Every structure is written in structure tokens, then in C-alpha cells.
User: What shape does this take?
Amino acid sequence: MKACVNHPDKEAFSICHNCGKDYCELCLDKGIEFYYCKNRECRAQLKKELLRSGLPENVKCPNCQTELELLEDERISGKVHCPVCEAFIDFKMSPPKVINSDNYVELLSSFNAGDIGLIKSILEDANIDYYVFGEQFLNIYPAIQPARFYINENQLAETKTLLKDFELRIWGASTNQLEKK
Ligand SMILES: [Zn+2]
Ligand SMILES: [Zn+2]
Ligand SMILES: [Zn+2]
Assistant: This one.
């Protein structure tokens, strides 16, 4: 068997499309077509692949018609926050879904991909209406910009109760935010 270059005891799952080395599943991130390893240059190629299939650099806000310059994360995730009308727009839906941000409150943020996955599953299990921004960004530039969770204000109290047990596990920054609101 071919072994992962990082884990000699693990069978290689695929090669990195950029450097061509063999890696196990843990050591790879999936682009649209190809897998990439976590080396800096290879991550940069992953980002390029994701950007190619994402949104253009500029889009019009479907809510207020302002021309918006998108962040890379917004282009990749298709989820955009319009700073002019404060709407959340999900361009992955067709037509793009516009959500009035007045009804949503930023509750917490996290740099930890594992925590983000857990928070999402807790919210989804409880049928909480939420929005998460910056999730994709984290795969490409870890620890530069956190993923931010916005919760429907009608479910804010419920969500806080749900996440109480979770508080200990998330970073100081996120815990502070939980207490502030
Ligand atoms: Zn690579
Ligand atoms: Zn590996
Ligand atoms: Zn707008």
C-alpha cells in the first residue's frame, strides 16, 4: 500500500493535486474537483479552485441594489452580508435568498472548526434558525477570522440555554460574547 507522507502507518487516500504527494483523508481538503494537502502553496491552489467556482468579485445586493465588493470567504461560501442595507444574502439559493438581519443577533464566534461543526449540529437538532458566516474562510486561513453565528432573535433565549454546556469548551472571546448579549 502507499502510505500517507505525514502518517506512515496510514494508507494514502489520494494525492494532493498541487504537490502530487500521497496523503491520508485527514491530511487533505476537498476543492470542487481535486484534493489538496495543508501545505501553504497547496492551500493557495485550493483557494484558487474554490474562488473559480464561487461568486465574482463584485455582485449587486438583490435587496438594495448596491454594487458590493466581496470578500474571498463570501465569494467561496456564497453567503454575503451587505454593509449598506445590512441584509444577509445567500447566493447559493436561486433566486438569492435575502434575510433581514434585523431579526438576527450575532451570538458567538469561534476559530475552532470542530466547535463550529458541533455548534451547527446542536442548532440544527433543535431547529434553530441561524446563519453562520466565515466558515469556509477558516479552512483556508485558520485563525485569522472567526466563523460568526447569527441567531434568529425569537430563538435567542432557547439557543443560549442550548449552548450553556458548550460555553466551557469555546474560546474566551466567544464566551464573552455569550455573556454580553
Ligand atoms: Zn500538496
Ligand atoms: Zn495523513
Ligand atoms: Zn444591500
